[in-house]
Amino acid sequence: MTSSDVVVVGSGPNGLAAGVILARAGLRVEIREGAPELGGGLRSKALFDSGVVHDVCSAVHPMAAAARFFREFDLPGRGVELCRPEIAYGHPLDGGRAGLAYRSLTQTCEQLGVDGARYRWLMAPLVEHSQSLVDAFLSDLRRLPPDPLALLQLPARVLAQGTSLVRRQFRGAAAPAMLAGIAGHAIGKLPSLTAGGIVLLLGHLAHVNGWPVPRGGSRRITNAMADDILAHNGILHTGTPVTDLKELAKFRAVLLDVGPRGLVDLAGPLLPASYRRRLEAYRYGPAVAKVDFLVSEPIPWANPELRKAGTVHVCGDQAEVFASENAAVRGRLPDRPYVLLSEPMVADPSRGLPGKRPVWAYCHVPNGDPVDPAEKIRRQIERFAPGFSDTILASQSTTAPQIAAYNANYVGGDIATGAVNLRQFLARPVPRWNPYRTPIEGVYLCSAATPPGPGVHGMCGYFAAKSVLRNEFGITELPSLAPLSLVGNGGTA
User: d(Cα 423, Cα 409) in Å, to the nearest integer?
Assistant: First the structure.
């Protein structure tokens, strides 16, 4: 191979996953990152105190133990500990009630009372066939999964959670609120078929590997991938933005961890007109507005069991979650926003100090909305955790435009790199048999704007790298991603 085989532009989890695979295949790989540090949406830093670690974007990682790339890459084998709270996620309700997703499916069903049997019907077959279903959900949509029979569990359940039927599935308030809270991860219209699929994927994982946080912060995942690239002779550049594809002419293959708008900006007239028009028609969804809190003690939830939950969907019942998310879709700022909250020290005490704890919280707002979310988020948490406001030592808000400025892929603050609707799930970013390969020779997309879409799973990079190896280098067998034992003077075995 030459000294300049492949360049990956962007170092989010998909760009790094692609870099790992290509470097493992023996190619000379360079990573170009415009920001001062690697990671994209997978970064951590000290915001208020050097001893307190805050995750800047993604914080909770169900896919870090479940997705094929990370199963093969083996984070625990590289010293990245995935800390699992006893309760994967919780959902408070008024009056001190709550829905609680324990690691144990049986325990979860028992606390749901009259709705336990229905919840078990929904989740138990998915838990039984988890790996096959995860691989199907996180596929490139171009071939049948290894266990197609497992997919027979999905149609009735997707319809139950992704259509108006969802309002009539349960008799109590806790179970539908819990599942609506997961549906909110779709960042779009509720109910919808895509949100129903997300409910099944994330919901059943709560009872398989849980919803873990990496000990020491999300940056530990970034560091593990970067270290592997370096161990296989890769080169990492930070603070080196790429503004034109012509800058990369020396490379045999180019992988772009960028969205459709970024591809248009980089490629300009090199793109065929029809392909460019389709990229320009790509739709973006509602945005995220975030607040990082430094607090003096654990969140004083009215329901004490919520203090065991690493993730809490802070909103009222199912109807309130749906109303909040649909308001953002329609361009209105909800009065009572759906708040996604992570309190990492529930599972990872290393994140803070005595009397100083990080809390991560965001809500969904209209795309590009400049309003500071802090007050609405604080009030919503206070509603279910009286006294929370008195524990706040400091806070930092990040508006939707600031989210967009942080990462160019997050257009208008859309952290999903594009609306997650049925059309853009099936044809992401445009209708094309190989969605990773662009019409420009040797240029590929590997961002969350390609299948299987958003999330820290590395699979967009995995499939893009697989396509590059086959089409550009004639390599049809993927390399092993398992950790290597270091021996001698930095050699590997």
Answer: 20
- Find where tokens 């760009």 sit: 15
Beta bridge partners, 309, equal 87
Report which DSSP code applies to 98: E
What percentage of the chain's residues is helix, strand, coil (to nearest 5)? Answer: 40, 15, 40
Report the C-alpha gap between 58 and 398 in whole angstroms.
Answer: 14
**Sequence-separated (6 or more) residues with CB below 8 Å from residue 356:** 48, 49, 51, 52, 294, 295, 296, 393
Strands 339-342 and 357-365: what pairing?
A: antiparallel
pLDDT, mean of residues 243-252: 96
Q: Is the pTM of this model over 0.90?
A: yes
* Helical (H) or strand (E) element with 253: strand 253-256
**What DSSP letter does each residue of 42-65 carry, written as one string?**
--EE-SS-TT--EESS----GGGT
Q: List, for residues 301-358, the tens digit of each pLDDT value.
A: 999 999 999 999 999 999 999 999 999 999 998 889 999 999 999 999 999 999 999 9
Give how far Cα 128 sits from Cα of 89, 122, 151, 208, Å. 20, 12, 12, 9
Contact 358, 54 (CB under 8 A): yes
In three-state secondary structure terms, 396 is strand
